[in-house]
Amino acid sequence: MNDPVESIADAPELIAPGSRVLFILLRAMGDVLLATPAIQAFKKAFPTSQLDVLVERIPSQPLRNNPDIHQIIISPNRGSKAHGYLPVIRQLRRNRYDTVVDFQSTPGSALLARLTKAPTRIGFNRRMRSWAFTHPVTPEESPGYAPLPKFKLLENFGIAVPSLSDSEASLPRLYPDANCHKLADDFLVNAGIDQTSRIVGLAPYCRRDWRMWSVSNWCDLILESAKHSKTTWLLFAGPDEREVLRDLENLQGVRVIWVGMKDLLPAAAVMQKCQAVVTGENGLLHLAVAAGVPTFSIFCGRDAPGQWVPLEEGKHEAVDLRKAGRTQGSPVRELEQFWGSFE
């Protein structure tokens, strides 16, 4: 086992021109997007380096066309049998990376980092996984907005944590191409949507029950909002979530249009047609932020909104219903105030 060293400066070959670097991003789509500011900063600091990412198939979709990434390597989905990883491990070893940065630092991702045999492997110093890293890094105790703590893994490269006021450096990014924008335009035309009217995205679903505001509460919010203003709502969710959200799609007196999401990058292009996106605690919140669309998010789980929403950036707001002690109320007043802040 390699002995950890105090500073990456002890291994100057890491930042030699043309260094090959692998970023491990074995989490859901939101976590992948939240790593893009750190990847962008690394490429800006070392423009001749070759940056690859290891990511699962569906979360990889928003990374297409990213100019900072040389190659996207698809990992088996979590829960796959061990033998399913063998082709990927062989590919990683053939690529002979100089440096591996494991943004998640889970036991599984740490093992993959170690198996690359890269001479320098950087990850968070967490229980039962720091053995995999040559440079284990202590995570921040008060992490703040989620992209920023990832910069802790890059600090010994001389890469500073950006300010949230610098949205170009601190917010996630994605890059829909001309085909994605054409698909978005075609969707609006085929749905008969007047692009001069208020169009708002709606992304309520969360796979974790303790984060999911009930569908009936979402229905009440939309109906209450309809009393104040006329809105076309575009409902974003995966195909297997449509039945759960059927009551929302079938609301009487309100126009709610289902947006099928076979590919996340065209879905982001549709979001860019919206004046705003109203979300729950889910990955589509981060997709909307990366698309540059104002967001209004409803939190009812254990997490603080400031960890997942760039509140200081100016066009993103969140309501923490749990903290307010009203998980069963409709935040229509806050939503109407949000409309007023940018219309």
**Total count of helical runs of at least 4 residues:** 14
Q: Structural class, please?
A: alpha/beta
Q: What string gives the helices and strands in order?
A: EHHEHEHEHEEHHEHEHEHEHEHEHH
Distance between the termini: 59 Å
Description of the structure:
The structure is a single chain. This protein is α/β, with parallel strands linked by helices. It folds into two domains: 8-170, 3-Layer(aba) Sandwich (Rossmann fold); 178-342, Glycogen Phosphorylase B (Rossmann fold). 31% of the residues lie in helices and 17% in strands. The protein contains 14 helices and twelve strands. The protein has helices at residues 29-34, 36-45, 57-60, 86-95, 107-115, 167-170, 178-190, 215-226, 246-249, 264-271, 283-290, 305-308, 321-324, 332-342, and strands spanning 20-25, 50-56, 71-75, 99-102, 120-124, 135-137, 199-203, 232-236, 255-259, 276-279, 295-299, 316-320. The longest helix has 13 residues, at 178-190. The N and C termini lie far apart (59 Å).
